[in-house]
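hey team, just a heads up i'm posting the complex here instead of the shared drive bc the drive is being weird again. everything in one block, sequence lines first with there labels, then the predicted structure for the whole assembly after. its two chains so it's a bit long, scroll down
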Amino acid sequence: MQFPSGYGSHPPNYSAPSGHYSQVPNKAAASHLDNQYRASYYPTYYSSPAQNVMTPSVGTSVLNTQESQQLYNKTPHTVGSAEGPVQGAISSASYLHTSAQQSYSAFGNHYSTSVSSSVASQGFPLNSDHYAMPVVSSAVYPNVSYPPAAPGSVYGQAFTSQSLPVVGQVKETNKFSSQSTSVPHSLQQHVPVGYNTTLSTTSSAQSVQDNLCSNLTRSVAKVNNQINTGIVFLEKNLSLSISQKFAIPKAPNLNNFPSPAIDSSSTTSSASPVLNNYDALEGGGYPEIVSVFNTCGISFVLPETRSVTSSPVPAPSVPQTSKASKPFGYGYPTLQPGYQNAAAPTPVQPSNPGHHPGLQHYPQQYPGVNQLTSSIGGLSLQHSQQPESLRPVNLTQDRNILPVSSVPAPVPNLNSDLRKLNCSPDSFRCTLTNIPQTQALLNKAKLPLGLLLHPFRDLTQLPVITTSTIVRCRSCRTYINPFVSFIDQRRWKCNLCYRVNDVPEEFMYNPLTRSYGEPHKRPEVQNSTVELIASSDYMLRPPQPAVYLFVLDVSHNAVEAGYLTIVCQSLLENLDKLPGDSRTRIGFITFDSTVQFYNLQEGLSQPQMLIVSDIDDIFLPTPDSLLVNLHESKELIKDLLNALPNMFTNTRETHSALGPALQAAFKLMSPTGGRISVFQTQLPSLGAGLLHSREDPNQRSSTKVVQHLGPATDFYKKLALDCSGQQTAVDLFLLSSQYSDLASLACVSKYSAGCIYYYPSFHHSHNPAQAEKLQKDLKRYLTRKIGFEAVMRIRCTKGLSIHTFHGNFFVRSTDLLSLANVNPDAGFAVQMSIEESLTDTSLVCFQTALLYTSSKGERRIRVHTLCLPVVSSLADVYAGADVQAVVCLLANMAVDRSVSSSLADARDALVNAVVDSLAAYMSTASNLQQSMLIAPNSLKLFPLYILALLKQKAFRTGTSTRLDDRVYAMCQMKSQPLVHLMKMIHPNLYRIDKLIDESTIHVNDRVVPQPPLQKLSAEKLTREGAFLMDCGSIFYIWIGKNCDNNFIKDVLGYPNYASVPQTMTQLPEVDALSSERTRSFVSWLRDSRTLSPVLQVIKDENPAKTEFFQHLIEDRTEAAFSYYEFLLNIQQQVCK
Amino acid sequence: MGSLNAEHQLFQQNPVTWSWEQVYLCSSRILEIIAFDELKTDYKNPIDQCNTLNPTVEKVKKIKRVKIALKLVLPEYLIHAFFCVMFLCAAEWLTLGLNMPLLAYHIWRYMSRPVMSGPGLYDPTTIMNADILAYCQKEGWCKLAFYLLSFFYYLYGMIYVLVSS
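-- predicted structure starts here --
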């Protein structure tokens, strides 16, 4: 039995891991003697499946074939020759698909032409041509969504070219200097037309103005006459435009505004819906909200004269229309007649010819139009033919399902404008990019609905906005975002609760263009991810300084492991890079069986150690000099850090009083809040919170019950909640070689929004890989951004509700998370449910707002908004499934399940998730053969990922897994963002010994080769090759025995295979092409993540290769299925 | 209605206390239901984000109210257990039989509570989970119905005994 060297030195607890993972490689190692390497793997991994498999024909073909490609290509022939080859089967199975291709191409042509024409058009007047187009095109194509996109694209172009210089500008100065945009303002071309009409309307409006003066004073809602309200706004606009001399932008408004109302009466059956609806919506639609709002005692200045609460609103004559018009705002003239039939949400439909073409350009500039067109884009799914993501994939036959490079996030089926504006999938992702209309439909799809958030991600381009009034919806408090609709210049409609709000005066001024009257061009409305500098309204106490407290274990065990040197060294190096300002404070506590404090008060000649041995009733020896200003006491701190590693070298103290030390830390931190970093190396054995060993080493590979996944005591949870209440987060570094009950200890970080790091069998010299990892993690940990006293609220469109949160935080309310600290590496997951049917809307939006105090003492709000279409058919739901997000959400849910119920339950639930969703999909597609296992293209990786999850440390059974390892993996699943989690679940495997020039990309003048992704199967490993496995936090480079000597010499820097050392963690800089390529590839992979991973070179006879081989999840192990077996197993259950 | 005779003796001792305790059970249930409802509907409250970060006076009052309501759980269990013991002493087999399932449920519920050092049933970290919240609310309504029905049943039994004696 072979083990990593670190294991050998450990006490008996861990000395006998009888894992069968170690056996598998042993077999492989034995087979290495065989010259026919490839063939020898096959019996190992594929012969036994064949015996279990129910379909013998497939099994024999497996046995007979030697080449992997043949294996799967042959099967169709053997199974049923009538079907023909794979391609034939697929194309014949779904003629729909081919027709989809056709229509797509046609579609594309049309779309591209319209775009090009719009590009060619220099000014807005040409846009009227685009309006003519829909009429024609709708006759030809059933899909009417894209023609309106064409005018939008003009707008979109203008936006992008404008915003690019702007972003940097804002970031740099926080002031909006006047940079004239590159796109010429075509408005000026248009001036004469607009102006003429303005005059004419003005005169008519002026005539009624006097009559309506009284209406201005709070009587509008009572009157409830559409024309009256309409003209009130007219009048208001007029007065503004006259006084402020902004007549030109306002002018089209005048014309546009009343027109929908008038037109609606002519085209819609209900005569008076439009304006009344808004009254109904405000007054009647949300009575409870309004009342709560008032009882809260917060006075909101209501500048608009419309009465909000008290008006008795006559019910609209046709309630459906009132509902229907909600998401759309006022009827914009872009809607097509054919559209109404298709979609339930029928907006008020004006007649196109009634509009003067010259006037139509203006509303296009409002994002409301974008929303409208995009809503059509969302609906267009119903019309369009089967898209690529629905292409059926026969999983048992199609072997090469992995994409060439990384799996991309699916793009929501929105119109191109909204797509451009939408939040980046890196920070905000939804499991279903097409939201089902009802909970019933969601239940039918058998896929979880939820969000995966990475809200505090490091961003390179983030618009930071300083403004005195942060514009938010008055009822649901949503921040203004790109997906709201501007009803007119002075009002916007919330896209989450559909309430109509006023645009504050300040918001009318656009600091980017230095122009007035363009609220839709403000950066808040042009970016779905913005950061706002919050005013003092958003703080009840002055922003706290950055406070860091380090709590270090100095018992014998800790000194033996030697982590203190690394921690102190890293701290010394990064002391100046700690995020903070001049107020930054720092403190140290060490503990063994007593708790030691360090007085670092400025003026002392050397640090003073104060020992408190009364651990049952811990107290602070001096209350004010333990946390000191980093800059004032820097010398003392440096002295302490230099002295600390050697202070305890001869300690005989083996006990660890973690609980009392944490209590002391809490007492020290509670006046300010901040971050506590705890380094612990063993089971806490003294004082409050002491723990006992709960793990039975003999049960590690048990297939039955895994116990003790939950905490043993609630001491740590209570402490975490206390900390959270005082805005203090506890980050746990567990560096232990023995069982330390992470399940209990982790609670202290889980509920205080901290993070957890675990270094099993850590030793500074015996385990250099872990030591290096600690060093790199610390560097990142100490220097990364940090947000203090944060809260995160997630809002979503009315009808959706949040079901459960996953991550490290304390849930304070149904949609509010309390985060004492927030760090850029924290991810969150949210399960959603659909409470009310979404039939009356075509778009849903999610908004996360993270309010935090930056390390510079600034209160900031980071807002992300995601917009997704709503669909009504099951096929569309499948078409929009985001398999990675689904898997990550399922992993989170499975962690919860395994803690609350049992691991076996969680595993069953994971398998059932695949079985149910695939069965549901196959039942929708009636033309598919039931005997095959078919998945939509969007979900083709689903079974593979679930299998990977079942073989992941957190959920595997039958393989020796230490309880702490398992619990740590579970903690990571809950708190890692999606990108990291996916690498953890399904690592990327590349072959790197033959990096060729083809398929390279250039990054910063560096050629980065892009080798294709390999399947995670030993069949892909050849003894002639070298492979790199990217597991997120660690890179393995596996070298085959017969690997090319040139490669070893050039890349690894050793003359031959035998001379490569067992532990190698760096690639030397050799002046050779292959070395350069490999290094540039590795560093490119490293650059793509925040945490720089450790590299480990593994030779074939290296004991560490068990680590490598356990990630080859497509292969069979003694305890788990191979991928093919797993598929057959699923197929059996699906067909049942 | 022979079984009520024995109850007669019991109620004779202090009928007022009995009904008052039953009223307490009902009212504690109601308070608890309200508490869960407040927890659940909290998000409808459009208070500014700053207020939610640092609780205002009103908010603190509300949180306290919720906490008090949730603390009523243990007394409720004890009182119910006391009822059952009394019914046992009075050999009220029918009434005891009616109450046994609830007693068993209470015992099970307390055994399977989350890990905590102090007495209590609800864990602040999981109570906001939608499933658990919904479960607790449903449980509250069911128990309220049960207590109300049994209140009238006891009242009826008491009056019957008083009248017939």
